[in-house]
Amino acid sequence: MFSDTKNGPVLVLELNELCPPILDRMMAAGELPNFKTLHDSSDVYVTHTDDPTLEPWVQWPTFHTGQTESVHGATELDEGHLIQTPRVWDALAEEGIDSIVFGSMNADTAHKDTVFLVPDPWSAGVSPSAPAYAAFHKFISFHVAEHTNPNARPTRADAMNFMKFMLGHGLSLHTITKAVNQIAGEKTSSGDRKWRRALVLDLLMWDVFENTWSKRRPRFATYFANSTAYLQHRYWRHMQPDVYQVKPSDTEMQNYGNAIEDSYRHMDSIIGKAFNMVGPTGRIVLATALSQEANTRYEHIGGKFVYRAHSFKDLFAWAGGPQPASFEPVMTHQAWATFTSEDAAIEAEATLEALQSNGKTIMEWRRTANRIMFWCGLISKTEPGFEITNARTGDRKVFDDLFMLVGQVNNSQHSRDGAFWVQTADGSATRHTNKLPLENAYSIMMDMFKGTANSASQVAAE
């Protein structure tokens, strides 16, 4: 399978925040055969980033541009359209090499003709390259952004448009079976199986990606998956209960004790699909940008709990002041509020400040021009009947009327180390002992195309 690959396609599997120590442990136990095959035919690096912003993660622009945060400037999600630094796919486009960018974080492109882009689920400022993919992106984004909102339901029209798109863009029998089994399992199982929805979402995205690949046959492509990162933040405590003071219950261990390892086995199946897709002339790159580690900073308060507004609109209506033109949910309990002007956003900061308990605001936020990223700052459990005050109006309200408990999260925290494996043309393997600055991965990916750019440009010209 390792014939000369210098002219074959390159697929970058961006498996967000997978952890080198877990990969090593599970490969050694024989649980990740496809990862092992890739590992044993790759230059294997552990990357490291010194970017100051790790919450939320914005290391993917560093990986894509070959520049640190101080240059590309991204500090938030949904800022892909603001980054001016060229990405790796833009540099390849200059040499006539076409790409698919599928779900990569904070992505955009200046080369609409040769780079086919499907933005990440958190992006509202970037649209898919093909209008037909809008229904897909909208549906996936809704479920990612609203997964902590039990009252959220897509409209019937959005659901129908999504299914119509999937039926015409590669929906596989395997994924249908997994989805049906997931729904049935949730209804019949005595335990909580809802966390496995994240794995089904990966499969839906892979079907569309593989279908797009088969039609476009790019020389370079990325595929992004976030399910393992999500599950690690939720269930690291259940994977390593001995590390924590607050122990999971027996029921929680039965429900979630294997969630993280199951997600790695799920990712191993995607590696297998990738091998089949790129064929014997293709090469695979594994990248994780960051990884995770146990987070014990909140054990003294019983772990970290977060709260999400039942309705962002109702929250701002009670706060008063300028009302946002739109809301864009981003993470577990965070959202963007976009205002009609920067002055309105500045004034709205004062209304968030006024939502208080015992004279201290309960809200946290960051403002960028006319947009505010906001969330509830309380991190411990509240007592029944706990009230908050609107200091501007004097009104009081029961906290639970405005916010819902999402649960205990951040059982893990981001680690600056990540995995970066580059499959070699001849199948040889080297495990590099020195850590690689994350921004240096860019030049290594570009080097994979040395000697092929001229031929690619010639093909494009013909």
Please characterize this protein's 3D structure.
The protein is an alpha/beta fold and 462 residues long. The chain has two domains: 10-293 and 414-461, Alkaline Phosphatase, subunit A; 304-409. Helix content is 38%, strand content 21%. The chain has helices at residues 20-28, 33-39, 59-65, 69-72, 88-94, 134-145, 156-168, 173-188, 197-216, 227-239, 250-256, 259-278, 312-319, 342-353, 399-402, 441-447, 453-461; strands at residues 10-15, 42-48, 99-102, 115-118, 220-225, 283-287, 291-294, 304-309, 326-329, 335-338, 355-357, 360-361, 363-368, 371-376, 387-390, 396-398, 403-409, 412-415, 417-423, 430-431, 436-437. Strands 1, 2, 3, 4, 5, 6, 19, 20 and 21 form a nine-stranded mixed sheet that branches. It has a four-stranded antiparallel sheet with strand order 9-10-14-13, covered by helices on one side. α10 packs antiparallel against α12. The longest helix is centred in the middle third of the chain and has 20 residues, at 197-216.
Features:
Alkaline Phosphatase, subunit A; 462 residues; nine-stranded mixed beta sheet; disordered N terminus; disordered C terminus; globular; alpha/beta; four-stranded antiparallel beta sheet
CATH class of the largest domain: Alpha Beta
How much of the sequence lies in strands comes to 15-25%
What is the number of domains? 2
N- to C-terminal separation? 31 Å
Which spans have pLDDT < 50 for at least 5 consecutive residues? 1-5, 453-462
User: What characteristic shape results from the CA principal axes?
Assistant: globular
> Radius of gyration in whole Å, from Cα?
23 Å
Please summarize the sheet with the most strands.
Answer: 9 strands, mixed
Give the name of the CATH superfamily of the largest domain. Alkaline Phosphatase, subunit A
Could you say what the CATH architecture of the largest domain is? 3-Layer(aba) Sandwich
List the total number of helices. Answer: 17
- CATH fold name of the largest domain: Alkaline Phosphatase, subunit A
Structural classification? alpha/beta
Mean of the pLDDT scores? 93
Number of strands: 21
What is the share of helical residues?
A: 25-40%
